[in-house]
Amino acid sequence: LESSFYAFRKSIDRFIRSYDMFLKEFDNGNVFVSKKYINKIFEALENDDDDAVQRLIDEGKAERYASSDFIDEFKEDLKNDLEILRRIKSLWEGVRRDPKLQKLQKELSKNKILKNKKLIIFTESKETAEYLTEKIGDKALCYHGSSSEAIRDKVIDNFDARARTPKDDYMILITTEVLSEGVNLHRSNIVINYDIPWNPTRMMQRVGRINRIDTKFNKIYTFNFFPTIQSEDEIQLQKTAESKINAFLTLLGGDAAILTEGEPVSSHKLFNRLISKETISGEEEVEESELKYLNIIKDIRDKNPGLFEKVKRLPKKARSAKEDKEAIDSLLTYFKLGKLQKFFITNKNQEPQEVDFITTARVFECSLDEKRRSLSKDFYELLDRNKKAFIDATTEEYLISEHRRGRDSGAQVLKTLKATLKVTQRFTDEQEDYLKKVIRQLEEGAIPKQTTKKTQKAMNSLKSDLTNPLEVLDIVQHNIPERLLESHYVEYSHRFSGKREVILSLYLIGENNE
How many helices (DSSP H) and strands (DSSP E) are in the chain? Predict the structure, then answer.
């Protein structure tokens, strides 16, 4: 529906056909189940090609069950579904207007950036691509997964700046994700996202098609279509897509501004990173995020439930030791207080230092065959030091001490942000809300000191620009990722309430030492 009305109608037609075929086979005594090949099964059945269906079953791509295996209500439920689908189809037959298409056509004819320019329109739906091409007319070229090599050649000739025989037969390319990577389209500097991709990497890939090293353009333009208020209330596509993209962009230490209207260009450094040569070509090593480790956990849960359950049953205060070439003879400890998480590392020659989740996860990470080492006799002494640091960091009197606040990097960042927030007329509502979140977390002491020190250092480099609220915002967004503002870091009902707990400790020793 949020791709196009046309694609929605086509989807309803497909659903109706599938239900009709399913019910027909159910009456014949068969129920076919296949994640990927159900349409092939229906096509084969329509052509009386039972051998083709059997091949899919023999190859493990489909399963056949007897209708008698299912409860009596199943057929009635199928019929009810089919009736609802037919009512939806009937309702939509009366809809003649397509406001989204009209908006596109108006922008193409009136918008100075778009008018008579080469541009790329991306959609996730093949049917939407064909529909838009038909409505826009001869100046538009359509390309999708079923297109021929001849059409691909036309794409290259008309939109690739390196084409041997450049042509201007087409000004608009309408394409699906099949062209979001692998083909250069940099005779254009404009991307229109007719629908928002659910996979956030596609945002980078789409823009990457036009932002090549040898582009002649100084600016790249991205236009996004968002759901209407009514449909957003129903399906929350925009909210879901933005949250996914926001989570992904945590990898780059920024926000979801690539989707946001109204953010000042001067603070849009994230966008520059997204479309940079390093990011697109993969020549720059991207910073890790929690997503990597969340994916590892998910993979274990799905593929090795026994190990997952064993990890769940690990007792509090679990401890171990491993080799580490960098943090030799150090102890890293993971603490919790309610929903607040903190991580401290110390050794005999160094005061305990708070580190962030990513640093901690990198140290804890090890291979399956990595050998467990013996704990040092210094273990408990170092653990006591980390515990004291954790207690200090989560004691209200410690946080509000005027003497400590004057020197604390978190307090300095907090002071700057409170002053910055007074100039609210320079911010969008989203930016103002973001700064308020950061201030609240700083007041709660929930942002790691390593992060606040890094942020304070970056702020100091601004010098006279520290009075520019947009520059300050950019520094904060770059250094304090959204993941540190999530509920599992700071949202608990009473400040520093609950029981302080040691979750894990890891002693780090040098190579070949015991």
Answer: 23, 12
With contact defined as beta carbons under 8 Å apart, do 409 and 452 qualify? yes
Instruction: With 0.90 as the threshold, say if the pTM is over it.
Output: no
Tell how strand 350-355 and strand 30-33 pair up: unpaired
- Spell out a b/e string for 23-55, using b for 16 or more CB atoms within 10 Å of the CB, else e: eebbeeebbbebeebbebbbebbeeeeeeebee
pLDDT digits (tens, 9 = 90+) for 77-106: 999 999 999 999 999 998 989 999 999 999
Residue 352 is inside which H or E element, if any?
strand 350-355
Residue 23 has pLDDT above 50, yes or no: yes
Tell which phi-psi region holds residue 236, choosing left (phi > 0), alpha (psi between -120 and 50) or beta. Answer: left
Residue 399 token pair: 């946080």
Q: Rounding to the nearest 10 degrees, give the CA dihedral for residues 355, 361, 364, 370.
A: -150
Distance of CA 226 to the CA centre of its chain: 17
Characterise 48 by phi-psi region: left (phi > 0), alpha (psi -120 to 50), beta (else): left
pLDDT tens for 344-364 read 999 888 888 888 777 888 888
pLDDT tens column, 226-268 = 766 666 566 565 565 565 555 545 444 443 344 443 333 233 3
d(CA 47, CA 460): 73
What is the DSSP pairing of strand 340-347 with strand 350-355? antiparallel
CA of 28: how far to CAs of 39, 123, 473, in Å?
A: 18, 39, 65
Helices (H), 179-304: 201-208, 229-235, 237-249, 269-274, 277-281, 290-303
447 neighbors 354 (Cβ within 8 angstroms): no
